[in-house]
Amino acid sequence: MEHQLVPEHRLVSEEEAERILKALRITRDQLPKIRRSDPVIQLLERIEGPIDEGRIIRVTRVSSTAGVSEAYRLVIGR
Amino acid sequence: MMSMRGVTKRIHAIKFALLSPDEMRRMSATKIITADTYDDDGFPIDMGLMDSHLGVIEPGLRCKTCGGKVDDCPGHFGHIDLAMPVIHVGYVKETKKLLQATCRRCGRLLLTRQQAMEYMQEMETVEELGGDITDVGLVTKETAKEATKRQRCPHCGEEQGKVTLDKPTTFREDGHKLTPREVRERLERIPNDDLKVLGINPEVARPEWMVLAVLLVPPVTVRPSITLESGDRSEDDLTHKLVDVLRINQRLRENRDAGAPQLIVEDLWELLQYHITTYFDNQTSGIPPARHRSGRPLKTLVQRLKGKEGRFRSNLSGKRVNFSARTVISPDPVLSINEVGVPVEAARELTVPVHVQTYNLEIVRQWVKRGPAPWGSLGEYMPGVNYVIRPDGRRIRVTDKNAEVVAEAVELGYTVERQLVDGDIVLFNRQPSLHRMSMMAHEVRVMPHKTFRFNLAVCPPYNADFDGDEMNLHVLQSEEARAEARVLMRVQEHILSPRFGGPVIGGIHDHITGAFLLTHKESRFTQEEVAYILSKIDVKELPPPDVKKGGEEFWSGKALFSMILPKDLNMTFKSSIAPKGDIGLKELREEDSLVVVKDGRIAAGTIDENAVGAFKGKILDKVARDYGADDAREFIDKATKLAIGAIMVRGFTTGIDDEDIPEEAKKQIADVLKSAVEKVEGLVEAYKRGELEQMPGRSLEETLEVEAMKVLGRARDQAGQIAGKHLGIENSAVIMARSGARGSMLNLSQMAGCIGQQAVRGERLSRGYWNRTLPHFVKGDLGAEAKGFVKSSYKSGLHPTEYFFHAMGGREGLVDTAVRTSRSGYMQRRLINALEDLKVKEDGTVRNTANTIIQFRFGEDGIDPSRSVQGHAVDIDDILQEVLGEEPSWKERLREQEVASYGLTEKDMYVELTEEEAEVEEEEPPSEE
Fold it and tell me: What pTM value is reported for the model?
């Protein structure tokens, strides 16, 4: 994915997702959401195959304060 | 009132539902049938709008429903049975949606069973994944939209008409009017199961309840009537509106029952609809607002709630409070930045509750005994007690007469409201409260006179001046609040701002001028002067003199200022007086504008805005950061006092003659301006002949404008430079401008030299008359003077045309600020409303009240901006210097800063991430705790 403004999105494996949730001590529904209809997810689906609702996406972005920062998104419908 | 304390309940859920007609009748205390309110004797008429079953508003009477007196009875609803059903304006949107999405004949949802199931499932998944009501609402909205599209009912095969809404309350189907009764009948036909698909819970909200058959009448306590001095009764707006409803309802019923023509009944029906619509919302678009006899629009239900003056914004989000005071502010340089001067009159009204315990019983009794306005033997202020609160919650007002008796009665468990004393902690605030420094905690100093007073160094965070500004003061009422305020809100804790990671509190105006006079170059002070200056900062012994000359001893200002610096302070920076641009070390030294502090001693340099000024003070910044709030407070207190001492010893004044320049300088300036004007004329000539060389991307006209602006701008700068050459650093106005105390060199050059080109929207003036700015010029004149160049200076005075041009340019500034403040204010309001419930949790994440994550780490780096250095997490140079103990040379330091500020580039980071090692790094769960 090469784009100046859209940061890197990666699908997180189920095992890793569990680990992330555990580390953050949260349940899935406490994550920020991203729609399946989001262009980034559509693109990811072309690479990874269909992405179900409830999967987690890792966003690695360039941050002006922290250099690089990681965020997670929960895939939801529509 | 006191018994309410300790009753804490947690709201588990809130359910919104519709009131059914049955429910309304059940909750109603009485049916209302007559529009009259009171009989001739002034008693409420039964079944009238002020029926005594609806509650009591007159003291002494009892409620006929609950038997309570004025404050006990909350009021009770009544109801009006409507002769014909009426649409509820608040629900037209939903009503329309339902009419469009359901079949006109069978009432079923216009979707196949299959489709309905799918939408139902989608709704469930959204809920499961933590979607809130808005998310669910989006699903139902889409469901309704899909259903509306269908032309034919999949259940009964009925062809569907097109339902439109004629605002505000008339529904039409294919152009034919639907009466509210028809609407109601249709809504009744919608089966419960179909409603669930549309996100409506039929158990609590049957859609036909959205069409009113019964109207609830609010209790009289909601719409109290007031008795005027003349003895006349004046009714509330709501009562007026209900009278209208009742009258028309009555007439409608009579006409309908008498079998009046359809036309008349329909007219009355519509009138009833109008009154009920305006009863809910008197600003419904599409209908004229109902008016009072005087022509004032009535304030009905929606108007009570909406907007800035509505219940929410003015009574629930914001309230008037007790234990607060407001008065004019004035400066007091002797107070510490942590203090606030409170007038005696205010201190006597503002109280702190003190709980009586064994350890304070005696002293509390003494306070009470003194009465409400005691004075000491020397005429000094002493705190008294205004109220004594008994354990049962009864308040006893303390007066001079009963003071002794009440004092005896005070026992353990009592609470007394003690007047303010020195050292009490209070909150001090100036509107607009734009940032957290707009409300800080101060320590009280009770003082004579009638204004609140505080240290001038605290003006910048409040953005206060003393041209009539008023400020508010709030007295904290609990130990917890006072402790919290002292730790978190005290002025000294806010010296460093979270906005830019530097000091917001610091020297202004005279402090900076004073510091300059004290420390610039080889300033010397005699013993007498030094004694005076140091007396301000409580130094009892003179330090050894720095210079001895002809038997006299002198002290250098730099040494005096060094006395208040921490003993191990080391830093190097440029003064504010340093000439702008890239200049050599030598020049900096010559101007004494390279501050070098070694082991807490000023080795060289002038202390000015860049050292101790608010926003810019480097020493301030470092002291606050490295030595803590207590030391920073002490430093600011002393530095400002010292500076004021210095300015008072020397004396300081400025006047218009500070801008006097010699004749030959004036001539030089005139020459520069004249040649500039001629140059512009030359440009205009070239333009007219078509010889002007066009700039890329600009038209010929634009090129001319740009060139002319350039020439004239340069001319003004040159004029300023010439003037500046004759205004030395010993000139008071120049001292203020260069040290950063007040004014700028531009201001001075405009006073002494030339005001320069006036502009509107960044262009030379061009509007006014046809092809010219003023009738004094020839049409089409593109020269300097004709388009707003002001050759005069403020001191010499402006020509009439120049004056007019200046007013044009000046007006833009005024309009700009007016527009900007209102716009940014609204933007900020929206931003605050959006972010108000976000909070940084213990694990560093930012979450909202639903506990969902908004940001995985505050600011992505988890740095508290008020502890950052100008926005950066660490100041590498500073640490290097401290650890290595050596001073990088000035030039080197500058270069290092430049390199550091570039930081990581995006490219660096992507390289890091694409490697495999990045994967490993990522997989390690972020360590918490």
Answer: 0.74
